[in-house]
Each structure stands twice: as structure tokens, then as C-alpha cells.
Amino acid sequence: MNALHLPPTSTAETVAAAVREHGYAIVDDLVSNELLDRIAREMAPYVENSMYGTDDFSGKLTRRTGALIARSPAARALVMNPLALGTVEHVLSHATTFQLHLTQIISVSPGSSPQELHKDELAWDFFPFPLNYDVQCNILWALSDYTEEMGATRIVPGSHRSDRKDYTQADTIAATMRRGSALFYSGKIYHGAGANTSDRLRQAINVTYAVGWLRQEENQYLTTPFEIARTLPDELLKVMGYQLGCFAMGYVGDAEDPLTVLRPNHPRSVMNTGIMAKQAVHNDAAANFMSRG
What we know:
The protein is α+β, with helices and mostly antiparallel strands and 293 residues long. The protein has helices at 12-22, 33-49, 68-71, 76-79, 82-91, 220-223, 226-229, 234-240, 277-282, 284-291, and strands at residues 5-6, 24-27, 62-66, 98-108, 136-142, 154-155, 173-174, 182-186, 191-192, 202-211. The strands form two sheets. Strands 1-2-8-5-10-4-3 form a seven-stranded mixed β-sheet, with helices on one face. The chain has a three-stranded antiparallel β-sheet with strand order 7-6-9, with no helix packed on it. Helix 1 links the parallel strand 1 and strand 2.
């Protein structure tokens, strides 16, 4: 079976529909080599100083390098890519808001073994989220070419719709793609890095989003110092988590908007039930609560 590929002209609705149906979709040639070159230059010293994994799951020949918003101004364009945000908004539309979950460059060196198959939503203490409730939407941006020999991510199509846990490498396909392409996938799909049997480094930029009411894997508030955060546009800050995740989740001070920490003149936007309006459309508990008013 060949992996599902979509053109860069695809709409967010199309990509989200593929993620819902198959658990993943590859969008070819979505960003330029020039942008990736800038990110690679800005992140090179940090990648070089990153530690290798300490076990087979993290990869003893694999480096993971985070804090891209603070370290790479160019990487912020990936975080705010319109197709990425639009797709995430559709995939996670059942939640009031979504937020940035993590940013990371994954560098898989030659000689790396295949990673154990897993689903990423297990990061939340292995909580058994319902199959019909997506909590995250992930994107692997190909910073290098993604060939099978280089260890392209292997995925089990359709595994996001099953409670099965005993998948093997025989159940997987390789998500091969050119540099600049992007693999969108559900946090429920079983996947893992492939074996790098080549003589080339395989690199991907992992940018993941999650529903606004869950804790982030990468702590965006501590990873990006205040002096840098204050220079960022409000829309990026909101995606990073400087907004209410839902009613009563994530306020500061006297139930104020989190942006007031960085923008003293920002409207305080004291918490109110208005934020529940979206949830009331598709959630009986929220609708019942709102109807009492």
C-alpha cells in the first residue's frame, strides 16, 4: 500500500477529512527550501548540542531538539502555517480552543533501529481517551528528504479507529515524502520512526497541536522567555497558550485574559460564560448550562 499524498493546493477541509478517515495525510511540497534552510541554520548549534536518546524508544542514535519558537524566528512560520492551523481547527473542532503542544526537530542518524510503534496521545499519562475524541493533531515537516532507507516514519493506516494494540512493523507503510512536505496525523494513529539504513541524516520538524484544556508536552511559557514572548504577535501567543483553554481554564490574576501578563494594556476580558457558546453547539452539558441563563 502506498501512502496517501495530497497536493499543496488542498484545502484544510480536505486534509482534515483525510486525517479523520485514514489517520494521516501527506501534503507534498507545502513549504519552500528557503524557509527550511533558514530554520536549519538557526537551529544547527542547538541540534549539535542535543543529547541522543537513552533507550530504544527515544533512539540511541536520535536527537530531539526543542524550543523552536524561542530559538528559530523562521520556525514560527511553520507554527502559524495557514493550512496547518486550518486543518487543526477542523480536526479539533469539538474543543473550545486548541494550542501548541510541542515543537521539536527530530534527527535520526544512520544506523538507527526502528522505533517501537505507539500513539502520541499516550503522553497524557496513558489516559484512555475515547476513540471518537481527538485530543491532538500532529505535523511532521520534512526537513530532509524522507525515504524508506533514511527511516521515514512508519504508520498503521486506520489504527486510529481501533482499540487494537498489537500492531507490528508488517502492518505499517512508510510515509515517504520530499523535503518541504508535511505529514499530518492523528494522535491516535500507531506509528514510529523507521530504521535508517542509509548514510544520510533523516530530519523532521515536529509541530503538534492539542485541545486547549490539556497540559502541553513542551511548556511554552517557560521555553520561550518573557523578553522574547513580548515581541511576538498576539495570534502566535494565543496558539502558544496565552488564551483561555475553555471556560475557567488558564486565567491569570483575578480571572483575567493570560495576554495581560505580556500586554499590560490588553483588555482584561474577565472570565464569563460567553466562551461556552461554541461548546453549547455540540455538547449537551454546555447547552443545558447555557440555557439556564
